Amino acid sequence: MPSSAHARAVVSFRTMRPSQKARISLGAALLACAAPLTLLTTPAGAAPTPSATPPTVEEQRLTGPVPQEILRRGGFDDVAPAFGRALAAARTPEQAGGLAVRDGRALWRRAVDRAQGRGPGPGRAGDLSRDDDRPLYWARLGMTRALREWKPAFPLSGPQRAALIAKVERSSRGQDSIDLPAGDRVKRVLVTGFDPFQLDADARRSNPSGAAALALDGTTIDTPAGPARIETAVFPVRWADFADGTVERTLLPHFTPGPRRVDLFTTISQGRPGRFDVERTNGAWRGGYPDNARVSRTETVPVPADVPTVRPQPQWTTTTLPYAALTAAGTGPYPVYDNTAVTEIPAGGTDPVERPDGPTPGSTAREGGGGDYLSNEIAYRATLLRDAVRLRVPGGHLHTPVLEFGAGNTDPATGRITDPGFVRNRVAITGQVRSVLAVAVGAARRP
């Protein structure tokens, strides 16, 4: 675990919340609401239509110059306008629902295809490198903003509109298209990544875990245990979605008994500079660091009532990934560490204490190995669900190195949205994620 001083130095890059309770300073210009996008109009003579809803904090960032440049140079600037035109032709909520799923899945597939070298490449559909995860993020927000501002010519309730937005969210993240093969001839691996985050500080940011998810989805890798098929999904950096159970509902169908049940899973997020970490222990605590919606939550991790869980709710869960093999193997340019540190309130105590070797009996969680932000929470939720359904396969959380821009391109106000070092670092991280997975599958033993 890095020192408190080191954690403060890298907070602007981390998916984890740092030990010191830093808070993002939000500039007044970034807090100002962007003008609504006029995407659709009501046909002349039509009946009164439902009112549009305001764009979210994330959607308001869309009109900034950096998101617009990423969409244009990534070749995804046509996504939201095309979705808006299709919405204009919908005549029933059912038609709109089918469109939301269809176009959401098409966006996910388009991003995966681009990352894996299929479809138009740089020069024909933008000049950003194929490994870039950011066009997917901003194009999705364009679609959800179009839905929020849509004024259909038929009645549409608030819950119906929210359900349409949820369909786009789920389908455009690969959450409803995970397709693990049946049989014993191939190992089944499920991997999750995250959206970019901390965008008020630097709207140019990418998330290497999301980039890895796009590069690996639907691929087969060779391992010492034979071929392994990888399926992936990405998740938002929002407290509310996690409280609503988006993680559990995505993973549960693949954690339950059957011919397509996973053989190994890992959640992935961005962590510390210059290193990978296998997080040994995950804690049941939300530390309050603001999410992409500028919302804070400080509380015990809330578990939805309608998903399997362990009762009473444990303070800690533990990885079953083969951390010893992963730290010993040479998987790429970055070292891989077995991170055992946590922060706890000891049994009978009142103040948090840092423990380098894991929690003590009866303690209360304040930070897992991955901190107390959403990277720790997704690891806690996934491993808690594993234990609840008695899934006896390797699973846990992997932190990637921080994705950094190249030298001379570090100023968010004047810097370029990409550079050769930035691309090189992201490609290296993705390549090592692939190697780590191959070692993990080969070394895994059912616990």
Note down, in words, how this protein is organized.
The protein is built from 14 helices and 14 strands. The protein is an alpha/beta fold and 447 residues long. The chain folds into two domains: 32-171, no CATH class; 187-443, Peptidase C15, pyroglutamyl peptidase I-like (Aminopeptidase). Strand 2 and strand 3 form a beta hairpin. Helix 4 packs across helix 7 (134-149) and helix 11 (246-255) packs parallel to helix 13. Mean pLDDT is 90; it is low at 1-48.
- Output the structural class: alpha/beta
The biggest sheet, with number of strands, parallel, antiparallel or mixed sense and barrel status, is:
7 strands, mixed
Q: What is the CATH superfamily of the largest domain? A: Peptidase C15, pyroglutamyl peptidase I-like
Per CATH, the architecture of the largest domain is 3-Layer(aba) Sandwich
CATH class of the largest domain: Alpha Beta
CA gyration radius, whole angstroms: 22 Å
Q: Please, how many helices?
A: 14
Number of strands: 14
Task: Name the overall outline.
Answer: globular
Strand content: 5-15%
The third-level CATH topology of the largest domain is Aminopeptidase
Domain module count: 2
Low-pLDDT sequence parts: 1-48
Mean pLDDT, rounded to whole units? 90
Give the topology string: H per helix, E per strand: HHHHHHHHEHEEHHEEEEEEHEEEEHEH
Distance between the termini: 26 Å
Helix content: 25-40%
Neighbour order of strands in the largest sheet: 2-3-1-4-14-5-10
InterPro entries: Peptidase_C15-like_sf
Organism: Streptomyces stramineus
Keywords: Signal
Protein name: Pyroglutamyl peptidase
